[in-house]
Design brief:
By secondary structure, the chain is of the alpha/beta class. It has 16 helices and 15 strands. Strand 3, helix 3 and strand 4 form a beta-alpha-beta unit. The chain starts with 8 loop residues before the first strand and ends in a 6-residue tail after the last helix.
């Protein structure tokens, strides 16, 4: 449980009335360590002060002198390690574009709010913030060296977490996505964006893949012996796609683990397929399919050649990117992108997974459109393997009780 009174929050807006209003809302929610600034320069001065630097910044986008986007750029220069919530009177498309920019700067953003800000919306976003030793650890902002990563692999410091994928039609847990974490002895949990690139640029991808896949396959066998039937999804790195021996490498690991390849889903990010020279990735992906692995195209819709990739590559599954899922129930432009991706996948006979399901509105929209599977914080955060069986039991209870009659009418088991 987060200690609200210990969470340092900064509200940045040029309007004095909005500052007072948001400070009062936060106080009513139990957040007492709240600072306010009416300009970006004053806010940056707070960010630079040890012991005062906010854990969370509520940031208005449209301000004179220094607007919110310029402020975010300066936050990067000042090495800010906290999280952001954006708010503005601008339209939804501007807010979504701003969120994407913040994420591109590698600053965690919990979401956005439209003015006038409502207490329930503010509370829902702040609840997504977790202390620094969890999902948004400041240590994760540090890019790791190849020497440190090589030692971490050798010392067993890298661990797999698993995020459930569930059927929207039945609520059944059908699989998990494997997400590697670095349990650093000093800095805590380090996330893959801070070391995957290091692995690829220093020839460590194969060692990292071997460790992730070997651990995940062994865990799958444990779950199977406990009576859990699950598909195991594992991400394929950009470097692996270019390696012509990758298909044989993976097939050997799976055979040694005694797991049928049909139970393993290999996820390839759409943006990692180089359209200027398809020879190596096309051979790798096609050989994996010949070896009976299931293949998924991840972050679908974010690249530049989506239709060509679906047509030419033997994918079984499409994962619609979170930017086309979250808010699709309320934003017409986001919904149009989601509908286009869903329709394209359906016409090609592919299973569809929606990523980034964060609220009941997302869930209900996906069910109403006939999407197959869902994954996201509304369902569960990534978790250690030991937590999964207990979570599955609690999920079954949630399916029966939390959503009431609306869920039971949809065909969920009693």
């Amino acid at each position: 449980m987060t200690n609200n009174s210990a969470t340092k929050i900064l509200v940045l807006d040029d309007d004095p009335f909005t500052l007072k209003l948001l400070a009062r809302m936060l106080e009513n929610l139990g957040y007492t360590a709240v600072s306010t600034c009416d300009n970006g320069r004053a806010a940056l001065a707070l960010v630079d002060r040890p012991g005062v630097c906010p854990d969370l910044i509520l940031l208005d986008l449209n301000m004179p002198e220094m607007d919110g986007l310029e402020f975010v750029r300066h936050l990067v220069e000042h090495r800010y390690t906290g999280s952001l919530i954006l708010f503005s009177g601008e339209d939804e498309q501007v807010l979504l574009a701003a969120e994407k920019l913040v994420r591109a700067h590698k600053i965690p953003v919990l979401g956005h709010l439209s003015k006038p800000v409502k207490p329930e919306g503010l509370a829902a976003l702040i609840e997504k913030w977790v202390p620094s030793n969890q999902d948004y650890a400041p240590a994760t902002n540090l890019i790791r060296s190849a020497e440190d990563l090589r030692a971490a692999i050798a010392n067993g410091e890298l661990v797999n977490y698993y995020q459930p994928k569930v059927s929207l039609a039945t609520g059944r847990v059908v699989g998990v996505e494997t997400l590697v974490r670095w349990n650093h002895p000093r800095d805590g949990m380090v996330f893959p964006s801070k070391f995957i690139g290091v692995a690829e640029s220093h020839g460590l991808s194969k060692d990292l893949t071997r460790m992730v896949l070997t651990g995940a396959l062994a865990q799958l066998k444990v779950w199977q012996h406990a009576g859990l039937s699950l598909q195991l999804s594992v991400n394929v790195s950009r470097d692996s796609l270019a390696s012509l021996d990758f298909a044989d490498f993976v097939a050997k690991l799976v055979a040694e683990a005694g797991v049928p390849p049909q139970e393993v889903v290999l996820e390839v990010s759409e943006s990692w397929i180089p359209m200027n020279d398809l020879r190596a990735p096309l051979e790798t992906i096609t050989r994996l399919r010949l070896k009976r692995f299931r293949l998924s195209i991840d972050e679908f819709g974010t690249g530049y050649s989506s239709l060509a990739q679906l047509r030419d590559f033997p994918f079984d599954e499409v994962k619609i990117d979170r930017s086309f899922v979250h808010h699709a129930s309320t934003d017409k432009k986001v919904r149009a992108k989601y509908d286009a991706c869903l329709s394209m996948a359906r016409q090609l006979g592919m299973e569809v997974v929606a990523v980034g399901v964060e609220e009941i509105g997302d869930w209900d929209m996906l069910r109403s459109t006939g999407c197959d599977l869902a994954q996201g914080y509304f369902i569960a955060r990534p978790m250690p393997a030991a937590d999964l069986p207990g979570w599955i039991q609690s999920w079954k209870v949630r399916m029966r009780n939390e959503f009431g009659g609306a869920v039971s009418k949809g065909g969920y088991p009693p």
